[in-house]
Specification:
Distance between the termini of chain B: 63 Å
Largest sheet of chain A: 2 strands, antiparallel
Oligomer: heterodimer
Mean pLDDT of chain B: 84
Shape of chain B: flat
Number of domains of chain A: 1
Helix content of chain B: 55-70%
Helix content of chain A: over 70%
Number of helices of chain B: 4
Radius of gyration of chain B: 25 Å
CATH class of chain B: Mainly Alpha
Strand order of the largest sheet of chain A: 1-2
Radius of gyration of chain A: 21 Å
CATH topology of chain B: Methane Monooxygenase Hydroxylase, Chain G, domain 1
Number of strands of chain B: 0
Order of helices and strands of chain A: HHHEEHHHHHHHHHHHHHHHHH
CATH architecture of chain B: Up-down Bundle
Number of helices of chain A: 20
Low-confidence stretches of chain B: none
Largest interface: A-B, 8 and 10 residues
Order of helices and strands of chain B: HHHH
Structural class of chain B: mainly alpha
């Protein structure tokens, strides 16, 4: 029993998240109209507690709980990023939830359950754990996208997300079944050797890999599996959009890294080419499409597609360098993107619209928010002294080390393209007069805290070298 | 070349052939005698009245959803009961957690008044 207790410690953070989520759901039914504040506090406490309880997880534990999960540096790093991200979403979204009467218990419960699912994907040592984690994340996300019950756009988003997601889950599961059929094992550790030993026809492996990439590419919003992104990002309540842009993407990236680099590492030369092409197409398509958008959430949707492309560069490199560069970029991207969404939510909650003109003269209306958004955009572009700069630098370095010079050059070119649309918003904020009908934007305490945390992290990750060595410790190699 | 995968191919071909063959054969063998009652859509023996594209009570769907949850619970409880003696206390705690999670869902449904037939 004691050994089992130690094993259960590995999933303690997820237990905390699920418990907090369920209590939030029930408590909100008692509090009814007064639920918004206290339940948001409970959810924030749950996410913070989950983050802290990661310290109790015994590091370097091999597959435990009947081979289901595994606590290595990689899972700890990704889970820390995901749970910190959830905390920022809860803090930054509390004002929006109250203002637009998003069902309180449902929102926080689903958010915590979804992020727990993401955590399970990051620590999966087994294809089944990995799929169940994905479903927990997905099902909660579909429902969250439709939480603004009176808003047709939100309903549309939920339905589109659900139908697309159900199909892609099926595709992924089919791919996993091919892997199981080829090897006869569900364990990630045994997958690579079994594949190498099976001597299966290469075409069969191509089939399995293609299906798996298709299913997870959907979650990561990689082109050509991105068609749901603009509509869902636009229609979903903004805190949910913020969560989707980092939570789903981060969990899917972790799953891809585990499945391909850890599970099929010996066969890297067979699958890196897919990710190189996927990364190139995704970042270019995302950035070029973002140039054409007039709605900030659609623009951020395409921007997040482009960011998914950058993240995939790490997989395309297919090296240890690529893996830590990708998770480091995930750390940088999570705080940066959540910061940007917190500012967008603050502008929206103050009564502003979502088109780019709503940001006119934001520098006059709220200098702090405008300055923060400027820093976040600089980081998304990859400007020096921000998190995004080191993130991109490492990814480009990993690509060059693996001989993918063309991909490295394309990544740099794409960063330049992305300046185009981010600058459009910055110009509106600083160079345009605020329209007479645009309200002053005040920031409530929790959103101010979320913005400050995101801002500090964006700058700290870009300046302090500790984060790089922390990411390097998150390597997948034993 | 494909070795054991031939089985899969055979299964695939058989799976496609069987339904197609059935439909074709039965259309060749049967009499073609449509009359109004026969071509009418089948609705559990009821006369179909009016357009099918009407609003219907959504309550059914909630009941169906709750039913699925507890159906799965039952299915899960049977194998659990069989191996309970071997697994001991841990399995008991596990199942209590599992049922507890479902009870939260039931409580939520009750609070949302979806169990009330209106």
């Amino acid at each position: 029993m004691n050994a089992l207790g130690n094993e259960l410690l590995v999933i303690l953070p997820e237990m905390v998240l699920v418990a907090a989520g369920l209590v939030a759901l029930v408590w909100a039914q008692f509090l009814k109209e007064r639920a918004a504040g206290p339940v948001a506090g409970l959810a924030a406490a749950g996410a913070a507690l989950a983050l802290l309880s990661l310290l109790l997880v015994p590091d370097g534990t091999g597959p435990v709980l009947f081979g289901a999960v595994k606590a290595d540096g990689f899972s700890l790093f990704v889970r820390a990023v995901l749970y910190a991200g959830a905390l920022v979403v809860v803090l930054g979204g509390a004002g929006y939830v109250r203002k637009f009467q998003v069902p309180v218990g449902e929102f926080y419960c689903l958010l915590l359950l979804a992020i727990a699912g993401g955590g399970f994907m990051a620590q999966a040592a087994n294809l089944l754990t990995f799929y169940v984690g994905l479903e927990l994340l997905s099902l909660a996300s579909y429902a969250m996208a439709g939480l603004r019950l009176d808003d047709p756009d939100s309903n549309e988003a939920a339905l589109k997300y659900f139908f697309n997601g159900a199909v892609s889950s099926a595709v992924l599961l089919f791919g996993l079944s091919w892997l199981f059929g080829l090897t006869g094992t569900l364990s990630l550790a045994e997958l690579g050797p079994a594949l190498a030993a099976s001597g299966a026809h290469p075409a069969l492996l191509v089939m399995a890999v293609t299906l798996v990439i298709g299913g997870l590419g959907f979650k990561m919003a990689a082109v050509p599996f991105h068609l749901w992104v603009p509509d869902v990002y636009q229609g979903a309540p903004t805190p949910v959009t913020a969560f989707l842009s980092v939570g789903s993407k981060g969990a899917a990236l972790a799953a891809l890294l585990r499945l391909f680099y850890e599970g099929m590492g010996p066969l890297a030369d067979r699958w890196t080419v897919y990710f190189a092409i996927l990364a190139a197409v995704t970042m270019t398509w995302g950035n070029v499409s973002a140039l054409l958008q007039r709605n900030i959430k659609r623009m951020m949707g395409y921007s997040s597609i482009a960011q998914a492309g950058y993240l995939l560069v790490g997989l395309a490199a297919g090296s240890d360098h690529g893996v830590w560069a990708a998770v480091f970029y995930l750390l940088a991207y999570t705080f940066t993107n959540l910061g940007a969404f917190t500012v967008i939510m603050a502008v929206r909650s103050a009564g502003g619209g979502l088109d780019l003109d709503s940001f006119s003269g934001l520098a006059r209306r709220s200098p702090f928010l405008a300055g923060a958004l400027l820093v976040f955009f600089l980081s998304l572009i990859g400007f020096p002294f921000t998190a995004g700069f080191f993130g991109k630098l490492n990814l480009i370095g990993a690509a060059v080390n693996s001989g993918l010079v063309w991909l490295a050059v394309l990544t740099a070119i794409n960063s330049v393209i992305s300046v185009g649309y981010y600058y459009g918003v910055v110009r509106n904020m600083y160079l345009r007069e605020p329209g007479a009908d645009l309200p002053a934007v005040s920031l409530e305490g929790s959103a101010r805290l979320a913005t400050a945390v995101a801002l500090v992290m964006t700058l700290a990750v870009g300046i302090l070298p500790q984060f790089v060595s922390w990411a390097q410790a998150a390597s997948l190699l034993p | 070349m494909l070795g054991p995968w031939v089985d899969l191919l055979v299964f695939l071909i058989a799976g496609l052939t069987f339904p197609v063959l059935n439909v074709v054969l039965s259309s060749l063998l049967r009499r073609d005698y449509p009359y109004p009652e026969k071509v009418m859509p089948y609705e559990s023996g009821e006369d179909p009245v009016g357009d099918a594209r009407v609003r219907f009570r959504v309550s059914y769907y909630v009941f169906a959803m709750l039913f699925v949850v507890f159906d799965v619970e039952t299915v899960f409880l049977y194998p659990w009961a069989v191996v309970l003696r071997e697994l001991g206390l841990f399995a008991l705690i596990e199942i209590i957690v599992f049922i507890g999670l479902l009870l939260v869902g039931l409580y939520y449904a009750y609070k949302k008044k979806v169990l009330r037939w209106v």
